[in-house]
Amino acid sequence: MRLSRAVALVAGTACIAAVATRVATQVAARVAARVAARTAAGGRVRSETVDGRTLGTVSALPTTPESQAPASDADRRQAESVLAAYLEAARDGSPTADAVDTLLGCGGREAFVLPIALLAASRVLPATGGGDTLVGRAIVVTVAEQRADRRNPDRYLARQRVQTDTLEWDLVRGDDGWQVCNGLQFGFHEPETSSTWYPLGASRRTARALADSIHVRFDGAPSRDSAVRP
C-alpha cells in the first residue's frame, strides 16, 4: 500500500512539473500578444483562456463621472507605478516583499484575507477615472489558491492551477501619495504544514517553481508601456 502511494506521488509530481513548463510558456506568450489588442478595443477581460479552458468573459470599462476631471498623464503614471510596485512586491518570492504594507491603504495593511492566491506575474494596464481616486487595472497570473478548510478550522486547502485574470483596484491619493485599495491581495498563509494540497504531488515548492517559470517569461515579454499604451 505504501509503495503504491509512493509511486503515485512520484508520478503526480513529474506530471505537474511537465505541465508547469508547458503552461508557463503558453500563458506568457498569449497574454503578451493580447494586451495591446484588449486595450485598443476599450474592453476589460475578466479572465483568459488557458490550455483550452475559458475562464471568463469581456465587459465594458468603467466610465469617468462627468463631474470629475480626467487625471493628468503625470497623475495617472504615478498611480500606475504604485500599482506596479505593489504587484511586484506581492509576487511570491519577490525581493521587495516588505514594501507591500507601505503601498496598501484603506485598512488593507496586515489584513488576514481568504481565499488568497499565489501571484506569479502581472502587467499593469492604463488607469481610468479622475480626481483623487482612479481605477487601476492589471493582468495577473496566479498559480495557486488557498482557502479555509471548513472541516478543520486550523487548516487550509490549497490548489495548484494557472489562472489569468484582469483585476481592478482603487488607486487613492492621500497625504503620502498614491495607495492601493479595495482589490484582491496575494500571498499564502504559513506554515506549509497547515495546508492540504491538490492535486496529488502539488506543494508550495511546485507552485513556487511554476510561479518563477512564468515570471521569467513575462520579464522577456514587451514592457507595460510598449505593450499597453496606445
Number of DSSP strands? Answer: 9
Number of self-contained structural domains: 1
Please tell me what the overall shape is.
elongated
Helix-strand category: alpha+beta
Number of helices: 5
Q: What is the residue-mean pLDDT, rounded to a whole number? A: 76
Order of helices and strands: HEEEEHHEEEEEHH
Helix content: 25-40%
- Rg over alpha carbons: 19 Å
Distance between the termini: 60 Å
Q: Which stretches are poorly predicted, pLDDT < 50 over at least 5 residues?
A: 5-11, 33-67, 222-230
Sheet with the most strands, sense and barrel status: 5 strands, mixed
Strand residue percentage: 25-35%
List keywords for this structure.
two-stranded antiparallel sheet; 230 residues; alpha+beta; 5 helices
Give structural notes.
- This protein has five helices and nine strands.
- The chain is 36% helix and 30% strand.
- Strands 5, 6, 7, 8 and 9 form a five-stranded mixed β-sheet that branches.
- The chain has one domain.
- The chain is elongated and about 50 Å long.
- The relative contact order is 0.21.
